[in-house]
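QA checklist item 7 of 12: single-chain prediction sanity check.
[x] sequence parsed
[x] length recorded as 363
[x] structure emitted
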Amino acid sequence: MRKSKFFRTAIVLSIAALTVFAPPALTAGKPVMGIQAEASEYKTLYFDNAVYYGEASGNTPNGYGTKEYEDGGKYVGEWSNGYRNGHGTYYYADGLRWYEGSWVNGVKSGTGYFMFANGDTYEGSWKNDKRNGYGVYTYADGRYYQGNWVNSVKSGEGYFRWTDGETYNGYFKNDMRDGYGVDRYANGEEYDGYFKSGKRNGSGKYYYNDGRVYNGNWVNGSVSGQGTMTYSNGEKYVGQWKNGKKNGSGKYYYRDGRIYNGNWVNGTPSGQGTMTWKNGSKYVGQWKNGLRSGYGKLYSDNGSYYEGEWANDKMNGKGYYRTASGITYEGDFKNGTMHGKGTITSADGTSYTGTFRNGEFVG
């Protein structure tokens, strides 16, 4: 049985009590009254289907004494006006649980140590028979909590450690992480931010093992809302998220100098967006699954210009193309080249219409 700091106090009190009386266990079956020093102070009382032996005033326990209950439980300690008051130890009938500490009017209040039937222990403050105030709870499986309690649930500031090494230091509510806190996970990752009902909710910063850092909003444990993700290779995304993926409006800075600014769906550019290249080229138009698809305009760094339909990141369908020198083509495109019916017009205004195949005029 664990001997807390309260155990030592109980020993001192027990020795002092023995100078006046001895509990039944020490009398070898002899009548307790036979060893009384002062009959007026020590009594054996029977009431409420229980037996009390110890100091009393009339028929009321007062002072130090032991009460054995009908269900097999037993209390050894201080009494006042018939109630457990002061320091004492209560042994439950199951033989596994026990409490040692302070009592007020028959209930655990003050500081005390409790051993649970499953091996869990709690040492700290009590009020009205419940854990209230600061206390340390050690689980039999190795988990550990120290911090504030309200009516036997973790509430307020506290520290929790799991068996796998994960730790949380922050606020609790209703036995769950709630409010601001820092969670350091067993794999080395870390979250610094707000929780709600045990999950990451609100503003928070997450440090990933692969070097990524996310700073922004969370909903029910996943990245959702406005936020910034910085990648280990220097790339960065600033924008909206949903369920851990880029969704909505956002801007992505690529390592090679490209910048995409536009709509995202499930982590890829989809919808309307603009891509600019380091060399000055720019595409403004529609995207699908990260590829140019739909209607769009391409302004190339060499001065050429295309406006029309796209598919699979290439000019496909109807479009208009103009070179830097002023030559234009309007017609069909396939896989980025003139293919199908179209009209070419030179810079001097000369034009011819016909059929093109793989970029070549065939008549």
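[x] summary fact logged: The domain at 1-110 is CATH 2.20.110 (Histone H3 K4-specific methyltransferase SET7/9 N-terminal domain).
[ ] second reviewer sign-off
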